[in-house]
Amino acid sequence: MENIEVLIIGCGIAGATAALRLAQNPERQITIITRASDAHESNTRYAQGGIIGRGPDDSSELLFEDIVAAGAGVSSPQAARILADEGPQLLNEVLERTAGVVFDHTAEGTPIWGQEAAHSRRRILHVGDATGRAIMKGLVAALNDRPNITIKSEATAVDLITFPHHSRNPLDNYREISCHGCYVFDRSEKTVHRYLASATILATGGLGRIYRNTTNPVGARGDGLAMAHRAGARIANAEYVQFHPTALAAPGAEGLLISEAVRGEGGVLLTPELRPFMERYSPQWKDLAPRDVVARAIHHEMEAQGYSYVLLDIASHMPTDAIRERFPFIYDECLKVGLDISREPVPVVPAAHYFCGGVLVDEWARSTIRNLYAVGEISCTGVHGANRLASTSLLEGLVWGNRAALEIERAISAETNGQKPKFEDIPSWDESGLSAEPDPALIQGDMQTIQNIMWHYVGLVRSADRLSRAIRELRHLWNEIETFYRTTKLSDGLIGLRNAVEVALIVAQAAQHNRQSRGCHYRQDSVSVTGDRLI
Predict the structure, then answer these.
(1) pLDDT the model gives residue 292
(2) Which of 106, 277, 336, 352 has its CA 20 to 30 A from that of 239?
């Protein structure tokens, strides 16, 4: 049993930023839980391209316009304005000064600004092509330096503790839904603990592993979204799943992201016969068109011509030494599978990359459940709309992680977050009578079934028939998995499987409900409301 002030579930840029801001008050006690054994392991760690700063010829107004344009008419102007106004300053305060992140710069100390798709200016700060690793290294070091922050690893969140659902007091049935912590599975002890908290922050990342082809790490399976949905939180924009156009298509390196920055530095997409094709799909932006356009263009070329991949060529457009210096991680990883990006084009395919929807929150990261906050990719602030602008994800985590902390500090100081229940009010986890051990073969088989359904029927191109088939099959699988879950001892894999089928249904049902093509939600059986993006 744990009795704490603030519980943060997840340790990427959003959760870490919230913890660091809260820790400025020495009286606050913050606990971060992560299912990984290493606190550095998160979606943030895998970010290659960079994070948005404020270039010399840039302004918050220009960034705001680019965010809204990429969002295909669905972005919240208020949220986009908050990100554009507050993001660059927080980058300097939190990442550069607090976490000590040193972004690439010239010998004279001038920042080296990168270019990415749909940006009207060069405004991307980076650390080679491993920006996320550098950010996590700095943030975790800062977290470990704060005595009032505790990080618990190998701890998998199971379900949120909410009233009235988990209350033994019948009077709570007449109150609004409020969150008071989480049931947490200790992977080393194989037991479930109750973590009671005055405020709980979901910072659990995305849901990309529900698709067969994905750039997401193993931990991104929708845990936070599923828990919030079961608790009754409102979910928004779940149909908008962004597919990155360029994941490496080579045996042994499936899912390796080939950063958008490669195209930003001049990389060109080619057919296997070495013909460029993006000008036919986006005459203005060509290879730097918004991600939804590029991903569907590649998908269309592959389907129409029977290609199993297309090629991305940076070797013809950038000196060899410059490629190795700018993209050392990608260069090394490709070499491991026999590909030299400085000498030859590399095969790429689209892959599920980023979830633009999520737990609906306001400008202070508050969900529709009292005392429950959501930050980072798990949340839907409204910034990304129907299609995320490149490199806004890290910045959004930074801004709303900071805002969640400010709001929690205000609520706790003013005692407006409500009375925290006692342990006797919350039932302990009961596994009595469960004797079956979780079968890895069943878990893996069911997960692969979910991934295949989502890839073929709820992927880059959707239709009424495909979505109906997906929902029928997922509902059947949901029933099977729920029975499996309720008759079997807990494991991290079983928890993840239960969450994966839950979020797969959420996405499929949202996609079925929205019959208009917009941004990264493309219905081939509908009329696009953004005609210039229809392929």
Answers:
(1) 83
(2) 277
- What's the pTM value of the predicted model, to 2 decimals? 0.92
Phi-psi region of 150 (alpha: psi -120 to 50; beta: other; left: phi over 0): beta
Q: How many CA atoms, within 13 angstroms, populate the side-chain half-sphere of residue 47?
A: 32
220 touches 205 (CB < 8 A) = yes
Mean pLDDT of the chain: 93
Residues 319, 338, 340, CA angle at the centre, nearest 5°? 5
- In the block, residue with structure tokens 């870490």: 16
Rounded Cα gap, residues 518 and 356, in angstroms: 12
Query: Could you give the CA distance from residue 496 to residue 301 in angstroms, rounded to a whole number?
Result: 34
**pLDDT tens-digit map of 368-395:** 999 999 999 999 999 999 999 989 999 9
Is 498 catalytic? The answer is no
- Looking at CATH, the fold of the domain delimited by 440-533 is given as Methane Monooxygenase Hydroxylase; Chain G, domain 1 (1.20.58)
**Structure tokens belonging to residue 307:** 């290609």
The amino acid at residue 139 is L
Predicted pLDDT of residue 433: 81
Q: How far is CA 106 from CA 51, 113, 136, 199, 317, in A?
A: 18, 10, 23, 43, 21
16-20, 207-211, 250-254, 403-407, range with the lowest pLDDT: 250-254
Q: In which residue are the tokens 């203005």 written?
A: 284
User: Which amino acid belongs to residue 55?
Assistant: G
The b/e string for 4-15 (b: 16+ C-beta within 10 A; e otherwise) is bbbbbbbbbbbb
Q: Which residue has the tokens 């010829």?
A: 57
CA pair distance 492, 495, nearest whole angstrom: 5
Domain ranges within the chain, ordered by starting residue: 2-48+128-239+356-425, 247-351, 440-533
> What number of other Cβ atoms are within 10 A of residue 335's Cβ?
12
Mean pLDDT across the stretch 396-413? 97
Residue type, 483: T
Helix (H, G, I), strand (E, B) or coil at 190: coil
Task: Say if CB 216 and CB 254 are below 8 A apart.
Answer: no
Q: What is the CATH number of domain 247-351?
A: 3.90.700.10
The CATH fold of domain 2-48+128-239+356-425: FAD/NAD(P)-binding domain (3.50.50)
Pairwise CA distance, residues 136 & 155, whole Å: 19
pLDDT at 2: 63
- Spell out the alpha helix ranges (H) of 328-463: 328-336, 392-413, 440-457
pLDDT tens-place string over residues 27-68: 999 999 999 999 999 999 999 889 999 988 999 999 999 999
d(CA 502, CA 226): 6
Q: Which of 21, 291, 403, 518 is catalytic?
A: 291
